[in-house]
Design a protein that fits this description.
Distance between the termini: 26 Å
Oligomer: single chain
Shape: rod-shaped
Strand content: 25-35%
Number of helices: 5
Length: about 475
């Protein structure tokens, strides 16, 4: 008899055995065993739970000795590792979300074009208003002198006794506090015009302005009306250009410099990145919740550690897929998906409830391609860690060391008990285990066979008569 027969050890723990048998073996070769002191020491680090079998035997008296099972528990190695991993991941996700979250967009600016112009008596000039570089017709136009129509067409006074300046003001009807203005220089001389009054340029693009009459004085950065945008434009900039002629007339135009990437492209990339980050954070929450629950109930199974490690990445990818499906209208939703808040909320929920999200995507895929999936869900067939294994058949013969056990719910970390003693075994699959008995069973002997899962659930005992 060997004592103890069953013991559980964590990383770097040890246990001493006692028996009268002189011969010792340890299988598999994990950790270290000293036959002299009969002390087994577990490895310093364990990343997979498994069993080690210590067998003591005697050639003089076969009745002496026996087999003891050492259950190595990898949970103590994974708990601090996962705790540090999730703390670091939380910080990284928080930083990524902070850097990715779209800034508050600048309020559109109301501008009037052209910004300045010189007019002679009775000459006309069409003014336009833009809000954020887009035409804005909801405007009330006013002029300090002369006449201006509701559409912005200005007529200079018929009598101009001396040069003067007139202010043209455009006021938004929906917000009277928002207004912009332009200056009209009234002169007895012939007018000076500069066009186009409004232009937009991206990095490296070239603009040619035209003056009428062409004999005008141009600013240094617009030689003869030609201007090339910088190779790099970090943010939107507005340039006002003014020209003069020999009569003192003035004309102006506005050039808007835009960054290279369009706003739509930047917004789409930001939305995808935000969906991925929020999905990973949702999966992080689900993983931590599950991990804490298992630790609290002392039922943490280290074989799920890789699942915990990669679940945030899975949640990020799944959130991106769901976001694209929402954008394409493949997933019914009554809420807008365009705002950063809605993208983050949807993605968080996808990462938090990944299983339900996958089921919904599976339904969408089948409906889109007209597929009827009648095969069972492979993920749903995964063995339940709390389900008890069952034995259907045990095959053993006198003089044969191998005892074959057939049934359901077997796993690599299952324990085989023969006559209530743990025995080394080979895992042949979820339906088959092979135990090697040394010495082999003799004719007439009766064996009681049970299989125990890693969660402690045991099959019903099966008695086998050796023939």
């Amino acid at each position: 008899m060997i004592e103890p027969t069953v013991v559980s050890l964590g990383p770097n723990e040890s246990v001493a055995f006692s028996t009268d048998a002189p011969n010792w073996t340890a299988l598999p070769n994990v950790g270290s065993f000293d036959p002299k002191t009969r002390v087994y020491s577990a490895p310093r680090l364990l990343f997979r739970s498994r069993s080690v079998y210590i067998t003591a035997s005697s050639t003089v008296n076969p009745a002496e000795g026996g087999t003891a099972e050492i259950r190595l528990n990898a949970a103590p190695s994974w708990i601090p590792l996962l705790s540090v991993y999730w703390a670091v991941l939380f910080v990284l996700l928080a930083i990524a979300a902070w850097n990715t979250w779209p800034s508050v967009p600048e309020e559109p600016v109301l501008t009037v074009h052209p910004p300045s112009v010189t007019l002679a008596p009775n000459q006309i000039q069409q003014f336009t208003a833009t809000l954020g570089d887009r035409p804005h017709p909801d405007i009330t136009w006013t002029a300090t002198s002369g006449a201006i129509t509701p559409s912005g067409l200005y007529v200079a006074p018929a009598d101009i006794p001396k040069p003067a300046a007139v202010t043209i003001t455009a006021t938004r009807n929906s917000d009277k506090t928002k207004a912009a203005s332009s200056v009209v220089f009234l002169s007895l001389a012939k007018s000076l015009f500069l066009f186009p009054a409004l232009s937009h340029l991206r990095p490296g693009e070239t603009l040619q302005l035209q003056a009428q009459p062409p004999s005008a004085t141009w600013p240094d950065d617009f030689p003869k009306g030609k201007f090339t945008a910088p190779a790099v434009i970090a943010q939107r900039r507005v340039l006002d250009v003014s020209i003069t002629d020999s009569n003192g007339s003035v004309a102006g135009a506005r050039v808007v410099l835009l960054p290279a990437a369009s706003g739509a492209d930047t917004a789409n990339l930001t939305a995808l990145a935000l969906a991925a980050i929020a999905g990973a954070f949702g999966a992080w929450l689900a993983s931590v919740n599950s991990f804490v629950a298992f630790i609290g109930s002392r039922s943490f199974v280290p074989s799920w550690s890789l699942f915990y490690l990669f679940r945030p990445a899975f949640g990020a990818g799944l959130a991106v897929v769901v976001y694209l499906a929402l954008r394409l209208g493949r997933v019914p939703s009554d809420s807008p998906i365009g705002s950063p808040e809605s993208i983050a909320l949807y993605s968080l929920l996808v990462g938090l409830f990944a299983k339900e999200s996958l089921e919904k995507l599976h339904q969408i895929f089948c409906a889109a391609f007209g597929i009827q999936d009648k095969s069972p869900d492979k993920r749903g067939q995964a063995s339940d860690a709390t389900a008890a294994p069952s034995i259907d058949k045990v095959t053993a013969a006198a003089g044969n060391k191998d005892v074959v056990i057939e049934g359901k719910g077997f796993a690599a970390d299952s324990t085989v008990l023969i006559d209530d003693t743990a025995r080394p075994h080979t895992f042949d699959g979820a339906n088959r285990l092979t135990v090697t008995l040394d010495p082999p069973p003799q004719a007439g002997a009766e064996l009681t066979v049970k299989v125990r899962s890693a969660a402690g659930q045991e099959s019903a005992p099966v008695k086998v008569k050796i023939a």
